[in-house]
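Much of the work behind modern protein science is quiet bookkeeping, done one molecule at a time. The fold becomes a row of whole numbers, each drawn from a learned catalogue of backbone shapes. The protein below has been through that process, and both of its lines are reproduced in full.
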Amino acid sequence: MIDFSVKNLLIIALLAVPFAAGAQITNFGKEREKLDVDSIVKDFDSRPYFGIYKDNYFVVGTELNQKPSKFNSDVKFQISFRQRLTKSILPLHSHLFLSYSQKAMWNIFEESLPFHDLNFNPGIGVQKLIIHKGKLIGNATILLEHESNGRDGEASRSWNKVSFSGAVVIDPRLVVHAKTWIPIIDGQQNKDILKFSGIFQAGAQFISTNKRWVADVTFVKRKGWNLNFNTIVNVGFRVSKKDNQFIMLHFYDGYGENLLDYNKYHCRLRVGLLIRPTFFSDF
């Protein structure tokens, strides 16, 4: 006859087998997930360090709420790129990078084709890839950035901010993004810039199944408790399936389109060329 204490030990051992197997499966799942993350990070680190940051575009158009003239029609263009400074060796597989964006409002219909305003936006930040179930689905970024128009006197505009942003691919056709910032306003001529250029933004990007069409909508919340937003809408058609160039329709409604006129309302529609990153843009 088996001793009662021995019998109990046998029963406990039999009952423990499924739990032990489950623990092994769980550990295997965790190891597999770690391998997937490491593989994606390694692939990312092997890519070129220099590339497009925000959308790059060159568009021409006019005000929608006024009769078009050479004084309210212009060209708007943006150049934006980033340089990764490290591999993903910082905590949480994050990396350090530099960014630079420059936006221009160009009065090409006026005599001598003067630039109305140039906005310079350098930054340095830390970015972490968002990886879920073995797929790269987005990123999260902390960025210290400066923005100014490089002018002096009454036309001078500048501010700094620590921004927190993120973008996530919900499915292959939908990306959602958001950004908020802590402002450090040093420009004497734009102390009230948050009332016009906003305190946070959010939006979504839609991509057609065949990847020929892309559209994004961004709402920038201006300071205050009322529902006051600047609205930016872009619609692009890919010229060729093999490249990242699009014919673009660009709509801006609200304040803060450029620093010089940050407190002036504009409703403008423009058309032109868009060049964007292969994955998705930062906003």
